[in-house]
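Residues and backbone
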Amino acid sequence: MSKIYGSAADALDGLLHDGMLIAAGGFGLCGIPELLIDAIQKSGVKDLTVASNNAGVDDFGLGLLLQSRQVKRMMSSYVGENKEFMRQYLGGELELEFNPQGTLAERMRAGGAGIPGFYTKTGVGTQIAEGKEHKDFDGETYILERGIFADISIVKAWKADETGNCIFRKTARNFNPPAAMCGKTCIMEVEEIVKPGELDPDHIHLPGIYVHRLIQGEHEKRIEQRTVREA
């Protein structure tokens, strides 16, 4: 059965419902699943919990879902580029679960590996540790973090074959692979889909067994803060 769908809306068909948990890949605006985010916004689904490194910017990426008030709760590690995020959070309109960046990535990876929880020293003695189980190992204190098991994963790769084996480019590799792993259904958008066997097996970053649906499309690839020197 083919994993390739004609559009983002087609690939999301039958998967979206109010109150669901979505794991979203990307790092800043690098490697974000912008076509799938746009389709989710147009679907009108609401009360979403989104696990993602960040929340995009005010008019792009996950920021679009914040503007349309479709996100109820964010699980993030960096939220500094989005004024609407700040306004909703400070106004009590948006729930926020802060995660250290490495912890968030490991929570996604753990979910994809079927690991319900793990202990880490990161966050001990800070607000991150409040309400979490503490345990000592070899004289050091650790806190229990839970794996993330998302209803769906939305991710973006540079190139994939028709079975879903894929390659990410540079910083897009930070969160897309673990986000892809932790969803019950993973939908991936790519810039190019090739035939099986065209990708060097040694270059594959994520095996196709994790990928359930594929779309190919054109991407805007914005830059959050463009800094250039004077002419």
